[in-house]
Design goal:
The protein is an alpha/beta fold. It contains twelve helices and 13 strands. 38% of the residues lie in helices and 18% in strands. α1 (3-24) runs parallel beside α3 (69-82) and α11 crosses α12 (359-377).
Length: 387
Amino acid sequence: MSPAQRSAAGQALRFLAQAQEAAAQRPGAATAHGRPALSLVLRRSLSRQMETEPRPPRFLLWAVTGAGKTEMIFPLLRYALDSGGRVLVATPRRDVVLELAPRVAKAFPEEPMAVLYGGSPQRWEEARLILATTHQLMRFYQAFDLVVIDELDAFPYHNDPMLNFAAEAACKPEGRFIFLSATPPARMRREIRAGRLPHAKVPARYHGYPLPVPERIAMASVEVCLLRRFLPPALLHPLQHSVQRGAQIFIFVTRIRQIAAFTELLRTYFPGLPIEGTSSIDPDRSEKVLAFREGRIRMLVTTTILERGVTVPKSDVYIVDADSDLFDEASLVQMAGRAGRSKDDPNGKVVFAAPAWTKSQRDAIRQIRMMNAAAYKNGFIKVKEVQ
């Protein structure tokens, strides 16, 4: 692990040790492995009851995009398992569960593991170590000593009260929560400022370079560009530079209906360059993302469906209509986080292109610069920023 990862993991381990010591001193602390799924009526009844009961202790690992969150949770899982506990790692998306499964199995070869998602062949298996989508949390009640929630700000977990309740119900009263996020919700940041949520920041990526800071380009909207069949030089020239340097180019738009037309417009300016578009309704999305990773596609027009969970070496990122209400601070930070993830190309380019300059854009840049400043202050990076 990098110094930033080791520091944060160490703080989280101390939190687990302190929480375990406090739980051991609590009268009547539970020791059972927990009970299975709750009926809807019982869940509603318990929801009212839990509102008046203290929550299990919580800890947030606030890690920048590309920081290597998975490696940081391994020591935490090991601590809980070695203490005789039962562990759940939950993430909103099935593809992340499937990606994590072989990595966790390799790290814990001696530990039987169940992988749960809709249609999973293991969905009836019992194990001390479980990986699951957040929807599977509703199957458990007070079953786990440690619950790790990854990407807590992502759909569908974010802003879903039932899934939030299911997570709390799945944890034993004396259990512990670890939350992972690059863009924690505003309510959590308020809790941090008020001193109510213990946390550790991981402000640097493993390669020790600062996060790319987005540049602003003032240009017409995508709809205007499509109507005029014209790319303004303010966007075209940086795109040409990205192509010339051999970058893989993400272009994020706001609407699925814009993808095909904008892809065709780009092809008129870059004849011969492999350019494709994809979205949540594209049956070939997985194949296109793989081709993009391998360099067989050089420019990919897409939506926020690819704002997280996709790592492509030597990427540049262009967010057009960055002033849209559909792009909040978290989305902008996540999309920007596709750039600069590789140690061979840590200084990728990020562009916010839009007619207007919005609070969300300013806040996203402020958050990125805040993390870079924290990384530099703590000696995790050698330069403050790359302009």
